[in-house]
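Quick sanity check, RxLR effector PexRD54 WY domain-containing protein:
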Amino acid sequence: MARHLVVVLLLFAFIARTDADTPSTSSTLKVMFTKVSPEKLKTFLTKEKPAECVFVRMGLNKAKGLLFSTKNYKKLDQWLTYVDDLSAKNPAKKGMSAISILTAHYDDAALYEMIRIARTGELIPEAKVIATRLQKGLLEHWLAAAQKPDDVFHFMKLGQAGYSFRSDSEFAVWVKYVDDLNAKHTKNPTLMGSTLSENYDSCFLERPLNQLLLEAKKFPSMEKSVLATQTWKLQEYLAKNESPKTSFKLLALDNWMKYVDDFKVKNPQYQESWFEIFKLNYQWHQIERIIGKELKNPATRKIAEKIEAQWIKHELDGKSLPKDSWAKYLKRFNERFPNDKTTIFDVLEASYVDTQLLRILYAVEKNPKSTKELKALATDLQSALISKWLDAMEKPADLRRWFQDVPSADDMIDRYTQKLHALSGNTS
């Protein structure tokens, strides 16, 4: 024992005599006592040295926020391999898990933040694999402990004031945790609405609520929670009497339209059209894209048709629609009803008065970008409109008065008059 003490004292004396250019005493000792060679790890494994002791011996307990730094990530990888080997060597003698040891030295929030940064691969690409493994282990650790979703929400720093989404993946990870927790505890499912309720206004104002809920709806078991959250937010906005302009960016279109209706019931003096707010938030080509996309989805088709009708009406009233849009518009109808021209006319007639229909068909007919197929379709629809006038036995003078400012109306009325005279001659 005395001999060992002498060796240690001599070692300190030697380090103390080193030049000023060499590392300090504490730094040198730190390197000497935290550098663990592969051979040393094999020795530890043979002796079944506890994983926590090896963790400290390798200096990983003092890495602070730099577990995945260039200096430490290889040591971390070696240590994780040691934990696996130790467990495989003696399964019956289970010590602390790697995650338990890590959380004993670093709080959950700090550990997750290190993992999150490492998973991006921005600092050290090789550390991404280790970080992904540890993220999975940490989530399983929380799940085993039945950690509350609200706590996990804050561990992941999703509830941090002024938080800006780095990507949807972080929120999706939390939603999946809630989903897994509910699957494990089916008798007492957790609704995520309470967590979002406490944090939404301070953390998520830059993200529409519907985008968060759409992410959650990817998990079927979350549907009840999503619906509850939607209902809660609508009721909260109404209770605060929030203007539809304020709520537009926070809600999905279907919920927002319902909110406008409810708001008008509560505030009968409010007369602003929902479409006026809608068009303030999108340019015309964005509206066209939204309509085209939502028409393909059975769940949103009615909403898309409602937007489409208001958009066309607005542009007709303003006479400002780009010249090739009617061709695109009519083409979309033709794609929806490819084998039934009458249906196309019925749909158009249900949404637009004759003045609007005449302008639509004229724009398609005169547009150089219109295909022969579309021009033929426009001609068929003009004939259908004339047939409607014939069925009603409209007076040509009335038609000229109604459509005096509409391009192509004179040609259409002339065609109608000829057919009317021919019909009168046949019936006389």
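Posting the structure with no commentary besides this: Residues 324-428 form one domain.
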